[in-house]
Amino acid sequence: MAGIYDTPEMIRVFLDEAEEQLQFLEQGILELEQSGETPEVIQKIFRAAHTLKGSSAAMGIEKMKLLTHEMENVLDKIRNHLLKASKPVINILFQCLDYLRMLKEDFAADSKDIKTDVSSTLDELKKVLSGEYEGKKRKTKDKQKGRGEEKKFENIEQEEMTVEFALDLEQQDLLEQAVISEQKILICNVKIPEESFMKTARAAVILNFFNELGTVIETVPNIWKIPDDADVSEFSYLFISQLDAKNVEGRAKDELIEVQEVKVLPYDIESPKLSVQSVKTVPEFVVKDADHNKSTGHERKASQTVRVDVERLEKMMNLVGELVIEQTRIAQVGTTLHNRYSSDNTVEDLLGISNHVSRVISELQEGVMKTRMLPIQQLFNRFPRMVRDLSESLNKEIELILEGGETEMDRTIIEDIADPLIHIIRNAVDHGIESPEERIKAEKPSKGMLRITAFTQENHVMLTVEDDGDGINLQKVKESAVKKQIMTAQAAESLSKHEIINLIFHTGFSTSQTVSDVSGRGVGMDIVRSHIDKLNGIIDVETKPGEGTKFSIKLPLTLAILTGLLVKVNGETYAIPMSNVIEIVRKPENELESVNGQTVAVIREKVLPLIWLHDYFNVSRGKKGKNVFIVVLGVAEKRLGLVVDELVGNQEIVIKPLGSYIGKAAGFSGATILGDGSVACILDIVGVGKMASNRKLAKVNNE
Amino acid sequence: MNELLDVQYVVYELANEKYALKISDVYEIIKMQKITVVYNSKPFLEGVINLRGKIVPVVNLHKRFGLHNYTTTKLTRIVVLKSRDEMVGIVVDRVNQVVKFSDIQPPPEMVAGIDGNYFEGMGITDEGVVSILKIDKVLYE
Fold first, then answer.
1. DSSP assignment of A532-567, as one string?
2. Does A50 participate in catalysis according to the annotation?
3. Active-site choice (A80, A189, A427, A536)
4. Nearest CB to B40: which of A665, A670, A679?
5. pLDDT mean for each 10 residues of chain A (703 residues)
6. What average pLDDT does chain B have?
C-alpha cells in the first residue's frame, strides 16, 4: 500500500473525488441507456472509470482497480462499436457502479479491510468481454502484443494508408492517456523523394519536427533500428498532439523540406487497420473536438475551493447575526438622535455611516449565507438512478425531468429535504404513474412523466414534484381513512376536497392494497410532513383525477436568519417566521362564524379555524375593534388563522434558543433580539397548531 | 463549615428579608430592565432578557417562595447567576453589600416562611442574620 497516501487527508480527498467520479459514472451510464452510445457519453464514462482506476490504484484498493479496469475494457469495446450497449450490458455496468460504491464505503470504514467481493462482477464483465465479438478483438490484441516485443517492420500499403504499429504496453498506455486527456492521435505518412540521400537521417529530422508539435510514439519503420543507409522512402509516424490532422498536415507541408508527400490522418487506437474504419472515425473525432472545447471551458469555470468545517461557518453566521441586530439598533439610536438634534452635522454623519455599515453588513450576511449554499443539483443527481431502478422493478415507463438544479439552498436544508423528496418521488412512481397498459387505455402516452423542479421565489425555494399519473383517488382516501380508523365515516363525509387530500399526511395512512418494497407501509407521507414541519416549510398538494398530482414544497433559504413578521398580542411583540405566513387579512368582526364552537373565517373560499393567542396565554382578548387582523399561517399541509392585535412589520431576525433552563415552551421556537434591544419570542407555528388542537380535544372531552 | 467562612457573599433583599449568595456564583448584577414574558413556561419564570446578545431567563424568587410580589423601584436589580453552566437571572429588591460572615449556623426548619432545605445556612454578621440560599436547589426543584 502506498504509504504517503495513507494520511487521513489523502483518504478524504480520495473519497470525495471517488464520489464525484461515481456520480459522473452514474450519469453517464444513464445517458448511455437513454440516448445510446454517442462518443461524448462513452468518453465521459470512460474518463470517470479511468480516473477512478488511477486514484484507486494510488490508494492501493486493488479490487476497485481491477473492477474499473475491466469496466474500461468493456467501455472501450462499446466505444469501438465492437459491443452494443444493450440492456444486459448496461445492467452490468450499473452493477459495477454499485460495487464500486460498496468498495468505497468499505474503504471509508476501514482502509485496510475491504470486504466486498467483486469477483462475480468481474466474471460478468469478462463474460461481456468474451461475447461474440471477443474472438476478433483478442486476435488483434495478441497480434499487437506479439509484435510489441519483436518490432518487426510492417508493410506500408500506401494506397490505403494502412499502417500497423507495433506498440508495447507502455506505448499503448500513452495512447490511452492521450485519448483521455483529449489529445489527438495522428498518423503521418511521409514520403521522402527516392533520389534523396540519407533517407534515415531525413526521417530523423522529420521525427524531430513532429516532436515539436507533439510526442511521437512510434515510427514505422523504426528509424533507430534500421541501418543508416537503408533504402526506405516512406515513413509513418504515430504521434500525439493537441493539433488536429489538417493543421499538422499543413505545417508539415510548409515547413518540411525535401519531402515528396505528407499525409496526416487521425488514428484509432484500437483499430490498427485504418483503411475502412478511418472513414468512420473521422467524424467521431470532429465531435470529440467540440467536446474538447467544451471541457476546457468547463475547467476554466471550475473555481478554486477551500474545504471549511461547517462549524466555523456556523460561528461566522452567528456573529453576522449579532452584527445585524446591533446595526438595527445603531440605526434606531441614530434616528432618535437625529430627531433630537436635527441641526447637528455630526448626527447627519452618524446616519450616513450607519446607512453604509448596514449596506456592508447585509452584503456580508449574504456572502456568509452563500458560503453555506449549495446547488440542489447534488440532490437531484440521486434521482435519475432511483427512478430508473424503481420503474424497472415496477415495470413502468417513466421519463424524469429535472429542472432548476442550479437553485441554491442552505446545505443543512438540502440534507433534510432529501428524505421527504425521495418519499414523494417513490410515491409518485408507485401510486401516481400507472402501468403502460393502463396509460394506453386512458389514452395517455405509455411513458409517464415525472417532473421535479426547483426555483427561488423571493426568500424561499419552491420545490415541486409533478406526475401525470392517475391523481389521488379521493374516494379511496376517504375509505382508507375510515378503515384505518383515522376518523369516522360520518366525519369523513363532511370533509372538503382539500381536507381529504391532507389525510394522506396522517400517520399510518396508506391507500396501497399491498405493502410493496417501494411503499404502502403508511409511514411515508407522515415522515414527509414532519420533516417539512421541522424546516418551517409548507407543503401543498394539487391533484386532478386522471391528470396527475403536484406536490409543492416551500422552504426557507436558510435556517439561521429568517425574515420574521412582527406582531403584537396583548402589548408583547412576537415574531412569526415569514415562511409560514401565507397572507394577512383584515376582516370585520361580524363576518367571523362559529362552527362546532370553533371560530372560523372564510378566506378565499377556504374555511380557516381562528386562534386567539390570548386564550393560550391567559390574557384578555383586549378591547374589541371593528376589524380583526388575521395572519394566515401554513405549516406543512395545515392552514390556520392567527388573530393578532397589531401588525408591526417585518424584520430579519436571528433565532436564539431560549436555553435549557426554560427548556421547551409550548408555542415558541426561540427568541430574538429586536432593534431596540428587547427580546421577542418567536412563535413556533407547529406548536401553536398543536396547542389549538389539544385545546379542542380537551373541550370535546369536557363535554 | 469553616471553608464557607472564607468566602465572600453578596447580600440582597427579597421582601425586606436579607439573603446571600456566594460571590463566585454571581456573574453580574444589572439594573432592572424590560423582561419579555414567555407564556406556557415554568410558573415562576418572569421571562427573558437580552444580556448583550444572549437570551437569559429571569426567575421571580418572590413567586418561588410565595412572598409578596416585588414592585420595581430604582433599587430593583437583576442578579445574573451561573448555575449548572447556564445563566439565570433573579429579580431582587435591592443588593446591599458584599460580606464575609463571622459565623454560619445550620438553617432552622423554616426561614421566614420558607422551607429550610433551600438554605445552606444562616450567616451571622454584625448587622444581623442573613440566609444563604442553595441556589441550584431553588432554581431546579
1. HHHTT-EEEEEEETTTEEEEEEEEES-SSEEEEEEE
2. yes
3. A427
4. A665
5. 59 78 82 78 80 78 81 80 77 83 80 72 77 43 41 40 60 70 74 71 75 75 66 74 75 73 69 39 38 42 66 80 81 88 88 90 83 84 86 86 87 84 85 84 86 83 88 80 76 77 74 50 69 82 85 79 86 88 88 82 86 83 77 83 88 79 81 82 84 70 58
6. 87
User: Which residues on neighbouring strands pair with residue A409, listed in sequence order?
Assistant: A374
| Residue B58 at interface with chain A, using a CB cutoff of 8 Å | no
CB contact under 8 A, A325 and B53: yes
Decide if A673 and B50 are in contact by the 8 Å CB cutoff.
yes
Active site residue A614: no
Per-residue model confidence (pLDDT) at position A228:
62
The identity of residue A181, as a single letter, is: S
> For B2-140, which CATH superfamily applies?
CheA-289, Domain 4 (2.40.50.180)
Task: Give residue B134's region: left, alpha or beta (phi > 0; psi -120 to 50).
Answer: beta
Residues ≥6 apart with Cβ < 8 Å to A364: A320, A323
pLDDT tens column, A221-255: 776 666 666 667 777 777 777 777 777 777 777 77
**B50 close to A (CB below 8 A):** yes
Residue A49 phi/psi, 5-degree rounding, is -65, -40
Per-residue DSSP letters for A380-425? HTTHHHHHHHHHHHHT--EEEEEE-TT-EEEHHHHHHHHHHHHHHH
Q: Residue A279 has what pLDDT?
A: 37
CATH code of the region A3-132: 1.20.120.160
Residue A124 annotated among the catalytic residues of the structure: no
Place B57 in a pLDDT band, splitting at 50, 70 and 90. Answer: very high
Q: Are A164 and A218 in contact (CB under 8 A)?
A: no
Level-2 CATH architecture, domain A561-702: Beta Barrel (2.40)
Instruction: Please report which helix (H) or strand (E) contains residue A688, including its range.
Output: helix A685-702
Catalytic residue among A31, A70, A72, A652: A72
- CATH H-level, domain A375-556: superfamily: Histidine kinase-like ATPase, C-terminal domain (3.30.565.10)
Q: What is the ipTM of this complex?
A: 0.85
Chain B contact set for A322 (CB, 8 A): 53
Does the domain at residues A144-299 carry the CATH identifier 3.30.70.1110?
A: yes
Of A616, A671, A691, the CB nearest to B48: A671
Residue A441 belongs to what H/E stretch? helix A436-441
Quote the Cα angle for A217-A219-A225, to 5°: 115
Q: Name which of B34, B41, B83 to mutate to probe chain A: the one with the most chain A Cβ atoms within 10 A of its Cβ.
A: B41
Q: Which residues of A touch B47 (CB under 8 A)?
A: 679
Q: C-alpha grid cell for residue A42?
A: 462513452
> Is the Cβ of A319 closer than 8 Å to some Cβ of chain B?
no
